[in-house]
């Protein structure tokens, strides 16, 4: 009956029979139905907009000279890339006007399976921020990986019953779709049956293959890098998510997708965004700002950043400023530079002039106390189990081992032949991937060239996609030391020299995230990176990000997993 | 597993690994995502479009010089207005390119409640045509009515579980919404909870009242009669259904709603369309044709007639020509005149040059044999139960009775004072409304002026909204004869003179519809109307339609129900 009475109260406030709780007076606002700016008092009651026109409120805020636009929605991202917890992520992006995100918890699911997903849902339940999830479609990413969990179509089906789970996340296994892989098609089938969404990931797919991928049911793409590619996908009925994050920056190439009428089928996404860039340049607001600077009509860019996402994801009362819509509002001091004056979530001001209002978001501050959450914390902060790793496990099984070559500024690798021992003088160091989910003692061993390390070891538990421990070292003892320290920290990044920890960043949540503000995390990250550089890591190589991709067996040429070296082009273990 | 294997086969056909079942070669087609016409081979397999490009098919049809557009969807109508069965309705509109309709079974629900709704769902299950339903929101229409059934919010909730039930039909009781009527809000509540649609009906509603109506959850309107009214509703977030039927013709006034960008939020609907006009001018194709003639961009009109409806009703794989969409296609010989060459439903040609292909729609021909359907027929064709009506029940209870005045060309009525007896010379005849659902013997008696009848009686079981028997007569014996004949026919329209049936049209399905082709029904209708005219019914008065509205107690000024005369402005029985 609560929601029944609430509806009654909202109707009365809309009629003007009672004062609305909040009225934004004399606002110029974006009307996403007429694609134009209109003017009026925006009346908000019980978290919802109840009317626009002439209204009185318990609280009234003058909006003269400001522009009010719908709260931004990031339609596709992996929040683990920020290496902060979901709550800290919300803290970071709310002042930038992002009031909802659709996250693919692919990384934490590779570590913790459904426990990781449950943790994200539970830990964000009471936030003045909406985190929707798409069910990771490819866990593990390949059969050469030892991940912490496997997500089957049965699990996908179960989780699709949850209101905040909107569909199946980016289907990276497009060869599996085109080849009619049984389990892949079943995941698609259960999602379509629930009438939920299926996100795509198919860079460069075209023609008959693209038709087949879409026929299978995949309804969006965020991997377009050219106008031509995006237009073909859009013409075939896919929604286009224009990506502008840390790794992928496609906005400039796709700017004309924001022309009429194409913008109506476009959204804006960050995909992956690191803490430094989040703190410095912002989030979806940054994409809108850049789009306008590149010549996009502000109406088009703002609509792609809000209403279009709500429409794609079938979120009926989100993304617009109109009666019946949730009052997620961004007040702009200047439209063209997207200068954010204030952010309202469900009618409550949560941020002013870029600063989070702590009292409006109490759940985000202080220690997490909620019982259930504590339970999840125990599970999610206890994921690094290597067993006892001995020196001999770091030795080659054969006489010689493959040498994986790094390329500055790229994440692809090269085949640099074979070596029999570490030789930092010749830029050949050891690379190990240590299974850390089930304490199997599996260690993949190879050599690495092009990293530049002269002494010590660098290690991380952020290692795509299975997130085992990856460690590069000039010295086996330092490698062992780094592995042990990561187990003590329950995940993170460490730099070791002569048995001494030079710097470290603990990432205890699944070995991927920590519960610190992004600014603080960035400072610590700068320190561990500097320490790695002090041991010789080359310029042009990100000491941790580059390492973290050397275990992802879907990008050519050679990768190392806990099971050994994978030749990606041949799709086989060497 | 059937649908799993089907998906596999469709993927293979999309890849070109096997021939598609049907390819429309070299087609110019409407792309609703780019709002433009494009060219390619449209490959269809297993009822779905699997690709557009260069394809080979088991069957190939050359489309050179033709334009292919998505099948039309009528977003709001009462199919009972056609006075033919759902199957006959499908027969009538398929050759006009309508491949799906969203019907509000308001009339049959007033007679039969859920049995009527079950009948429509069951009798249309196997058709090459889609009938979706919205749950009638106002049964009975008012408390002065004796309807055959009552639909509560519990019933609405139950029926919303069905896939083909898309939401709550036009909420005519907008005063009930604004006044927060408990039962009305509960119907809204259960629909929103199911994330289904809520159609509106609020002619002229504006300002705060409109905000309140939309805040309550109502998301569309089909009652707009001016550009200004439609623009206000659209700006507030409602979808606009542009109506062009037999009774309401709003297209000309609303033609600029089809300008960009507004057309993206518009649909086309017939609401009520009589058999004659259906047969003569067509259905949604007629609205598109007229819109183009009035200056609308064909792309906009065609999209309003197809994709927009699918989007509003959340029908994911309908309304577009793209991979993954159901192959509901209309082939136009000429775009601007919407000259229909052929109609495909789920990839099967069902009509060619305006003629239904009988072999493609076998379920539509011959007798209905299906067992379950037979069961429904028994229920739905046995709805006229008056008990035994005697002459004295046709007498006034008081000395004098109200005289209801008809106005040529209108459905509103006037108060013409009182009379004590029938006097055809003075144009005063008797009007009776006889309860026919539960054989209560209730008969409302009054007088009618302006109808013109000089002798005999005219009667019908189509009598809005409760569909009791309404009969106008110059002679009580003829009135009785007409009532008895309607009971024998189990509904319909009859004209009686001197105890003899001059003409009749049986409508045995709920007393509202018959199982004959619209052309045949129209011929019979012309005969009964001519018979009524022969008894004196005035020009400017439709002998049956005008009668059928004299019992609808929501239109001023006086109406007659089984309970007596209602003063609509005072909303009370006299």
Protein described:
- The structure is a homodimer of 574-residue chains.
- Chain A is α/β, with parallel strands linked by helices and 574 residues long.
- In chain A, a hairpin with a 6-residue loop joins strand 18 and strand 19.
- In chain A, helix 4 (114-123) runs antiparallel to helix 14 and helix 5 packs parallel to helix 7 (182-193).
- The longest helix of chain A is centred in the C-terminal third of the chain and has 17 residues, at 518-534.
- Chain A is globular, with a radius of gyration of 25 Å.
- The N and C termini of chain A lie far apart (64 Å).
- In chain A, 60% of the residues are buried.
- Chains A and B meet through helix 1, strand 3, helix 7, helix 8 and helix 9 of A and helix 1, strand 3, helix 7, helix 8 and helix 9 of B.
């Amino acid at each position: 009956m609560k929601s029944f009475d609430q509806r009654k109260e909202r109707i009365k406030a809309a009629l003007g029979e009672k004062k609305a709780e909040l009225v934004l007076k004399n606002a110029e606002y974006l009307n996403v139905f007429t694609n134009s700016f209109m003017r009026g008092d925006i009346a908000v009651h019980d978290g919802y907009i109840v009317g626009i026109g002439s209204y009185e409120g318990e609280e009234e805020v003058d909006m003269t000279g400001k522009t009010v636009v719908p709260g931004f929605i990031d339609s596709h991202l992996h929040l683990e890339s920020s290496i902060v917890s979901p709550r800290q992520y919300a803290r970071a992006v709310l002042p930038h006007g992002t009031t909802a995100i659709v996250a693919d918890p692919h990384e934490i699911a590779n570590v913790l399976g459904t426990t990781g997903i449950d943790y994200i849902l539970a830990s964000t339940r009471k936030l003045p921020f909406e985190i929707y999830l798409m069910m990771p479609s490819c866990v593990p990413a390949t059969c050469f990986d030892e991940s912490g969990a496997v997500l089957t179509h049965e699990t996908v089906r179960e989780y699709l019953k949850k209101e905040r789970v909107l569909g199946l996340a980016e289907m990276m296994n497009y060869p599996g779709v085109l080849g009619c892989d049984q389990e892949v098609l079943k995941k698609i089938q259960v999602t379509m049956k629930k009438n939920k969404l299926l996100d795509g990931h198919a860079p460069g797919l075209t023609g008959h293959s693209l038709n087949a991928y879409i026929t299978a049911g995949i309804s969006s793409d965020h991997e377009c890098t050219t106008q031509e590619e995006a237009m073909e996908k859009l013409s075939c009925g896919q929604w286009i998510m224009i990506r502008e994050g840390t790794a992928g920056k496609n906005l400039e190439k796709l700017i004309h997708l924001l022309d009429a009428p194409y913008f109506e089928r476009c959204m804006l996404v960050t995909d992956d965004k690191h803490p430094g860039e989040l703190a410095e340049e912002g989030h979806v607001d940054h994409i809108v700002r850049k789009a306008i600077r590149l010549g996009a009509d502000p109406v088009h860019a703002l609509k792609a950043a809000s209403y279009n996402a709500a429409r794609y994801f079938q979120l009926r009362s989100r993304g617009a400023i109109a009666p019946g819509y949730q009052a997620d509002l961004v007040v702009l001091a200047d439209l063209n530079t997207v200068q954010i004056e204030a952010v309202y979530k469900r009618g409550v001001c949560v941020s002013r002039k870029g600063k989070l209002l702590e009292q409006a978001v109490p759940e985000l501050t202080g220690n997490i106390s909620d019982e259930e959450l504590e339970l999840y914390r125990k599970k999610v902060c206890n994921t690094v189990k290597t067993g006892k790793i001995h020196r001999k496990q770091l030795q080659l099984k054969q006489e010689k081992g493959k040498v994986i070559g790094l390329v500055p500024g790229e994440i692809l690798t090269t085949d640099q032949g074979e070596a029999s021992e570490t030789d930092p003088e010749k830029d050949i160091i050891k690379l190990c991937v240590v299974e850390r989910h089930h304490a199997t003692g599996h260690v993949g061993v190879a050599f690495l060239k092009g990293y530049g390390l002269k002494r010590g070891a660098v290690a991380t538990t952020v290692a795509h996609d299975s997130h085992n421990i990856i460690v590069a070292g000039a010295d086996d003892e330092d490698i062992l030391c780094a592995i042990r320290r990561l187990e003590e920290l329950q995940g993170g990044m460490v730099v070791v020299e002569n048995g001494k920890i030079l710097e470290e960043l603990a990432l205890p949540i699944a070995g991927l995230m920590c519960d610190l503000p992004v600014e603080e995390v960035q400072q610590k990250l700068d320190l561990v990176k500097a320490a790695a550089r002090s041991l010789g890591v080359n310029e042009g190589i990100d000491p941790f990000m580059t390492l973290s991709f050397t275990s992802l067996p879907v990008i050519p040429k050679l990768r190392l997993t806990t099971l050994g070296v994978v030749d990606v082009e041949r799709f086989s273990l060497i």
